Amino acid sequence: MESKEMPAVGGVLETSIYVDDLDRAIEFYGRVLGVSHMTLGDRGASFDFGPGSVLLIWRRGASARDNEDYPGGMIPGHDGSGPLHLAFKIPTDTYDAWKERLERLGIAVRSEVRWARGGRSLYFDDPEGHVLELATPGVWPNY
Amino acid sequence: MESKEMPAVGGVLETSIYVDDLDRAIEFYGRVLGVSHMTLGDRGASFDFGPGSVLLIWRRGASARDNEDYPGGMIPGHDGSGPLHLAFKIPTDTYDAWKERLERLGIAVRSEVRWARGGRSLYFDDPEGHVLELATPGVWPNY
């Protein structure tokens, strides 16, 4: 940390992944995680993961150019490839229910991890190979 | 949402980016955003963005293979490329201070956006071209 004048940065608000098939992603994240999209457009969709937590799922290539069309200002472009990784929070007492739910939905649990701090994680892939994790408290010093 | 038995998923816990130069990233995120790493290893580093919010910065390629070395279970591999996008939360009344801070540090503000809901964003790049955003409340229905 720097001086007292250092303004405070809060948590991560938006996380991005990139997919070939946005319709399939919307169906999967809705069916498996129970989340719905807040916005849906030509470039991608935004998903509500609770207060101050947004997953952006972009159509691959569609967000690569700077977007000059928004009246409030230019939105810089970005685009990614490869199987990315993100994790979502689940309460400790829902771990078994989540595992059963994934199995019931035919989603292969690729791995289960017990962390040194006591937390547990379930790993599975989304339809495009992004590596998803459901993690209970006890994984990090700040969680 | 599904039935009453649906276990609750919480917010995004972990977000990943991939870099060629981890030392440079650690220096940049520390100096510019004031965050420090919780862990640092051969594969990457984890950064504390406040309670339940973790940014994982991976050495490009180093996390691609499944990690069988952790005693608590296999950690699936992943790896990404391209300029990814993520956003961090800032309080509304720190917007101007953040803008001045970026300018003082010689970080080019690529764009400022005023969103329809009243929120504002500052966009800038990290040293590897990842598109970072500092966003005040009023950007999303859930923020």
Structural write-up:
With 143 residues, chain A is an alpha/beta fold. Chain A has two domains: 1-81, 2,3-Dihydroxybiphenyl 1,2-Dioxygenase, domain 1 (Roll); 82-143, Roll (2,3-Dihydroxybiphenyl 1,2-Dioxygenase, domain 1), CATH 3.10.180. Helix content of chain A is 15%, strand content 30%. Chain A contains two helices and eight strands; from the N terminus they run βαββββαβββ. Chain A has helices at 22-33, 95-104, and strands at residues 12-19, 37-40, 44-48, 54-59, 85-89, 111-114, 120-125, 131-135. In chain A, the strands form two sheets. The first copy, chain A, has a four-stranded mixed beta sheet, with helices on one face. Chain A has a four-stranded mixed beta sheet with strand order 5-8-7-6, with helices on one face. In chain A, strand 2 and strand 3 (44-48) form a beta hairpin. The first copy, chain A, is globular, with a radius of gyration of 17 Å. Chain A starts with 11 loop residues before the first strand and ends in an 8-residue tail after the last strand. The mean pLDDT of chain A is 95. Chains A and B meet through strand 1, strand 4, strand 5, helix 2 and strand 6 of A and strand 1, strand 4, strand 5, helix 2 and strand 6 of B.
Estimate percent helicity of chain A.
10-25%
Beta content of chain A comes to 25-35%
Low-confidence residue ranges of chain A: none
Please report the distance between the alpha carbons of the first and last residues of chain A.
Answer: 21 Å
Question: Biggest protein-protein interface?
Answer: A-B, 75 and 76 residues
Counted up, domains of chain A total 2
Q: Describe the biggest sheet of chain A?
A: 4 strands, mixed
Along the chain, the helix and strand elements of chain A come as: EHEEEEHEEE
Give the strand order of the largest sheet of chain A, numbering strands 1, 2, ... along the chain.
Answer: 1-4-3-2
